[in-house]
Amino acid sequence: MIPYNKPYIAGKELFNISRAVIEHGCISGDGAFTKECQDWLQKHLECNKVLLTHSCTGALEMSAILCDIQPGDEVIMPSFTFVSTANAFVLRGGVPVFIDIRPDTLNMDENKIKAAITKKTKAIVPVHYAGVPCAMDVICDIAKKHNLYIIEDAAQALLSSYNGKYLGTIGDIGTLSFHETKNIISGEGGALLLNNEKFIERAEVIWEKGTNRKKFFRGEVDKYTWVDVGGSFLPSEIIAAFLFAQLEMAEKIIDSRRNTFSLYSTLLAPLAKQGKIKLPWVENTYHPENSDDYSSSFNGHIFYIITASNKERTDLIAYLKSKDILAVFHYIPLHSSPAGMKYGRADEELVNTDTLSERVLRLPLFYGMEEWQVEMVVQEIERFYKNQA
Predict the structure, then answer these.
(1) What is the rounded CA–CA span in Å between residue 242 and residue 6?
(2) How far is CA 245 from CA 40, 50, 240, 374, in A?
(3) 63-74 per-position pLDDT tens digit
(4) Could you tell me the residue range of the domain that residue 169 belongs to?
């Protein structure tokens, strides 16, 4: 069977876990490996401050607190995203305002943002789908003009960049995920990237359950106490130990995924030229002369195809499953979900979101995927469409 995703050991993960227990004698949060991970991310991403979290969901929830989201405050985001993007703000009483996506990148349509802004708007949340950057120059200009925060949901975008800056480091705050379905994994896990320095001190307090414990350990206060709202956002040292080994191998892992992505692109190009399927827009990064919209690099996180219809996608999923190949779809648009209709609103009819979300199909892509596995997936897709003729 060729799985959609496959967790993996890339290097010293298990050795690091044993070190955390035996050598460091610490498996609770904020130990030596947590600091190693934070330092690595700060250095490589050139970020002011990084705090490791138990998930990207947790990092988004911290972002909502830091931006002081109050009941009734509106937050603009795409509907084509995972539920955590909206949930984090709904928990603070915020109202997600869903806008449409671009038909090429499947990212939020930057041209729809201005019309969605009201007196209640507090922030914009770009989601870098599949590790491909949103149009951050336009989004930053809008945010600056209207005095809005930018919180980048870069869950899928570690080490992808836009105009020379890593995604997650362009807005006021960025969030990352290390869930087992991502490029760099720790089972569960995430990170909060603090690019606006005004958030750093309070973020440490929120991260430490609302206490000034960090100041205490730095010798800035003689005891620590409860000073603000907060939560238990730290991951354990076991998670951090596993993650640090992955970060040390990050470039190798991502290069491998890019190569797999490139092979899919090459092998599926004939079907795309025949108009049977549509390939990811990011293929243009292999041929910069074909695109003048972005100067970017991507991390090979997802390879998807877009089918002609929802029925075709459903039939293709079933066919591939019969051949022991697991392909998956996502997302159900948030604006059409029960909670989305209850807690948020769509700014207008989301035509691209509705039509494309029914046709996107994600193909197997994981670290260590063999060329023959990619070739087998492509061969079965070709057979499916040949049988449809």
Answers:
(1) 16
(2) 11, 18, 9, 27
(3) 999 999 999 999
(4) 13-248
Give the residue from 279, 269, 253, 254 showing the smallest Cα distance to 363: 279
Do 206 and 263 lie in one domain? The reply is no
* Strand 296-297 versus strand 161-162 pairing type: antiparallel
Please give the tally of structural domains in the chain: 2
Inside any domain, residue 3: no
How would you list the strands of the sheet with 190-194, edge to edge? 49-53, 190-194, 173-177, 149-153, 121-124, 74-78, 95-99, 345-346
Tell me, yes or no, if the pTM score tops 0.90.
Answer: yes
- Asked which of 195, 229, 248 is the last residue of a domain, the reply is 248
Whole-angstrom distance, CA of residue 208 vs CA of residue 190: 16
Domain C-terminal end among 196, 220, 248:
248
d(CA 122, CA 154): 19
Helix orientation angle between 237-248 and 32-45, rounded to the nearest 10 degrees: 40
What DSSP designation does 21 have? Answer: H
| 126 close to 99: Cβ distance less than 8 angstroms | no
The dihedrals phi and psi of 381, each to the nearest 5 degrees, come to -65, -40
* Bridge partners (DSSP) listed for residue 74: 95, 121
90-146 residue pLDDT tens = 999 999 999 999 999 999 999 999 999 999 999 999 999 999 999 999 999 999 999
